[in-house]
Write the structure tokens for this entry.
Amino acid sequence: MSQAITLDAQIRTDLGKGASRRLRHANQTPAIIYGGEAAPVSITLAHNKLFKAQEQENFYSQVLTINVDGSEEKVIVKAMQRHAHKPVVNHVDFLRVDAAQELHTSVPVHFINEDACAAVKAGGNVAHHANEIEVVCLPADLPEFIEVDVANLELGQTVHLSDIALPKGVESVELRKGESHDQAVVSIAAPKGASTEEAAEEAPEAE
């Protein structure tokens, strides 16, 4: 499990586009914390520390702690604005989380054992149809990522959302909508120029 991410912030009262530009020139990033019963809070964060934190994958799929002038806020990243050309974060929207309330967010997918898959060794082409899965769960149950093992996947086979064993307490937002939302996550297509049956006959037996 990755280390928890904590950031320090200060409340900002000087608002507007001009104020935001001045903050960025001072290597500060404007942001906002909203949601729940408390009022929205405009804050600033040190850009270098924020930028380093956001390079971690779990920054986007973990409950973060923000210390705002000594007061802790538990949040998730809801939106982020980046500079079009420079490695700069222009603004971040943080959403408060309540330990007793379900949250909706997206979690990255890690595909494992592709190199060990017999269908891949036979020339099959892996297609990732989703790199993240939208989930609903309590904050304490939020996983950093979801693993999808393709070791035993056969040529022409597709793994759907319903085929993935999600962690306890975690549900797929799409599957909550019904079977018609059972989206494809990963599949293995036969090599170009070969039918699925021909490619399967050529595939080496799994050890």
